[in-house]
Amino acid sequence: MTDTYILPLGAKEATIESSGGKGASLAKLRQSGFPVPDGFHVTTAAYKAFTAANGLDAVISEALKEARPDDVATLEKASARIREAFTAGRIPDEIAAAVGSAYEKFDDQETFTAVRSSATAEDLPDLSFAGQQETFLNIKGSEAVLDAVRKCWASLWTARAIGYRLRNNIPQDVVSLAVVVQELVPAEAAGVMFTANPANGRRNEILINSVFGLGEAIVGGGVTPDTFVVEKEKGEIISSEIARKEAMTVRVAGGTEEQAVPAEKQLKPSITETQALALAELGKEIEDLYGMPMDIEWAIEGGEIAILQARPITALPMADEWSVPDPKGTYARGSLAEHIPSPVAPLFRTMGLRIANEATNRMYDTFMGEEKDKQWFIGGNMYLPINLYVYAGFKLTLKDAGPLFRISIKQTGPIMRGSVARWHKAREKFGQIVDEWENKDIDSFSPSELLESARIVFDAASEYYTVVQTILPAVSTSEMFFQKYYKWFVKKKTDPEFTTFLFGFDTLPVRSEKSLYDIAKWIKENPALADYFSRSDSADVERCIAEKRTPRGVASEVWEALILRIEDHFEKFGRTAYEFDFSMPTPAENPRPQIEAVRMFLADDAPNPYERHSKAESARTAAETAVLSRLGFLRKKPFTKLLRWAQETGAVREDSLADMGLGHPFIRRVLLRLGGMFSDAGALNQNDDIFWLEEAEVASMVAALENGQPLPDKRAEVLDRKKEWDAALKLTPPVALPEKTILHKFLNKGAAQEIDGKTVMRGTGTSQGVVTAPARVLHGPQDFGQMQPGDVLVATTTTPAWTPLFTLASAVVTDIGGPLSHSSIVAREYGIPAVMAVRDASRIIQSGEMITVDGKAGTVMLER
Asked: How far apart (Å, rounded) are the C-alpha atoms in residues 564 and 45?
C-alpha cells in the first residue's frame, strides 16, 4: 500500500488527483530539472482512507448543512465540528507506516521538513486557494511529521476554506487533500516572484519580493519586503526598493518564530542584484514551462536558489499600458464615450461600434459635404476601443486647421438653428422605428431575422444619437451666452445665480422621479405592503418581482396592483439606458435603483419631488418677473431672447439623452432570444453570453443554425472574455491619449495631492455646497444595489438612467464631465454638491470611506 499512500516528490504519477495542485506543480518542476528540495507526497488516497476509517464523510455532510458563505458564525461552527472529529480520528497503521518509511529515507530521522497542504482544488489558473490550508515548518521526526499531516488534512475544513469553496461554487464533497513533505531550506533570504507585474499587469516585467530568513514573513504580511522589478527580455533591473526590515521568520525548536532583524542589517538589501537577475532567469524558464504567468516561492541558502512552489497567477490585471493605434492621432474619452463609461463587451465592440461609426460618418457627410475628410478619423471611424474602453479618435495635422476652421464657421449656423425642431423630428422617427419592430412577433423570427432586427434598431439609435450630438453644442452655447450676458449686464448682488432661470422644467428624468414617488405614496396606503417594504431590502423585493412571487403577509391582489404600477413606470421611463452598450441590462431588468428610491420615499422625512420641482419653478418665475420688470428695452430684448433659447435647449438636453436607450429593450430581447438558441445548441452556457461573442461569430452561428449544422462550443472563450472585461474594469482609462499631449494635461487636472496629511483631489465644481459622507463607488449597473441614502455617488460618469440614484445621493463626484454634463445639471436641480473631472476618483476613492465634497472649491478630500 506504500505506493498508494506515498509518492516520491518527482514522480510522474503525482497528478492533481493524487497529489493536489501544489504537489503536482512541484513534481512537474522537479521532473524538469528545477532546483526543488527533495521530499515525498502523502497522497489523497491516504486522506480518503483516513476519513473512511473514521466515518468522517457523514460528519462533514451533516456539519455543512447550515453553513452559509456570508455568515461567519455558521462557517466557524461547521469547521469546529469537523476539525474536532479529525483530531479524534485514528490514523490507520498502514498510512502511519508508509509515512514513517518515507521519512526515514531522509537523513536518519534528523531532517527538518516543511509539511504543506495540497488540495485537489488549488493552485489552478482560475482559483489559487492561496492561504486556505495549513503549512507547518521545521518539523523533525516521523511522529511529528505524522501529526502535521493530520493537521493539514483537518485544515481542508477551516472556516475560511469552507467559505471560499462555497463562494466559488466548488462542491464540498469532491475536494480532497494531499500533503507534501519536503526538506526545509534554512533560508538566508526568501520571498515571492511574479513573472508578470501584478501591480500594473505588464507581462514584460518580473516582480521579486525578498526578506531575510524564511519567506513566511512575506506570506503573513508581517514585514515590508525589498522589491525588485526586472525587465524580462533585457534581463535588466528596472527598479529596486530596499525597505526597512525590522522582523524576520527563523527556525526554532518545533517550528518557527518571528525575531528582530539586527539593526545594522535592516536597511541592507536581502538579496544582491546578481541574485535578483538569477531568480528572474529561473522565473522566465518556469513561465515557459507552464505557458502562463506564474507566482513562485523561493529561498536562498549558501548562495543556492531553491524553488519551493509555483502556481499560476490569478486575477492578474490587464496591462495598464495605453498605446495608441496611430501616434499622430488624438484620442479622448468624450462624445459617445461619455455614455459608455465601462469596458465594452465583444458584441458591442464589434457590432455596436461598427454601426455607431457608420451613423457618425453619415452625419459628418451631411454637415460637411465634400470638405469632410474621413482621414480625420483613425481608420475612417471616430470611435474605437483601447483596452476595451471607447475613445473618440482624431488625426488632425496643421494642414487640416484651415479647412476645419472654415467648416466649423460654415456649419455653426445650421447646427445652432432649429436644434429643438431637429431633435423632435429625429425623436419621432426613432420612436416610429422602435414601435414598428416592437409590434412584430419575434417568436416567428428566424435566427438571421433576429440578428438583423437588432442591427436595424441599433442603427436607428445611433442615427438618433448623431442628431443629439448636433443639439448639444446649441445647449452649451445658449447656456454660456445667457450666463455671460446675465453676469455682465443684468445681475445684481441680490439676484440669484443664472441656474435659477434654467430649472423647474418637467423633464423626463424629473417625471420619472415623480412616478417613483407616486408608487411609494400608493404603497403607504396599503399597510401590509408598506410593512413588507420596511422590513425587506431591495434585493428581496427585486427577487419577488422577478420570480412573480407574492411576499408573505401581502394580499395577492395588492401585490399584482403594485406590479402593474411598476410595469407602467418602466414602460414610460425604463427605456433610458444605463449605458449605450446594449450588453448592459435595462432599468426594467435591473430595477434595484428604482426600488431603493421607492423605499427611500416611504420614509416620513423623505424629500417630495413635487415640492422640489414646484419650488424650483416658482423661483424661476419669480426671478424672471423681478429681472424683466426692471430692465429697459435695450437690455430686456437680448436678455429675453437668450433666456428663452437657453431654457428651450436646456430642457431638451435631458430628454434627448434620456431617449438614447429607447430601442435597447427590443435589441436586448431579440439578442437574448438568439442567445437562447445558441445555448440550447450547447454553444453557450446561458442566453446573455451572446453579448460576449463577436459579430462575425454570431453571424457564423446564425448561418450554422439555419443550415442545420452543429455550433462551435464557445463557453470557454466566453469565460476568458469575461475575465478580460473584469481585468479591464480595474484599469483607469486616461481622459485623453497620448498622455503627454496638451489635451490630456488640460482635461486631466484632478490629480490627488497630499495636503496637511490628507489626500485632496481637485476637479471642476459644478454644483455648490459642502458635504461629508460615505463614498459609494459605482462602476456600472452591477453595483447599483450598493447605493444607500446619504452616500456620495462616485462614478466615471452618469447618464439619465442613473437619476434615481441622485435621489439617494448627498453629493456627486465623477472622473469626467463638466458644468453641462448630466451629473452637473441633475446635481444642481437636486441641490446637492457636485465635482466633475476628478482624475481617477472612481479608482482612488474606496466605497465606504468618508470624503468631503466641496462643490464651490471643486475639491474632494479623503478623510484618511
From this structure: 59
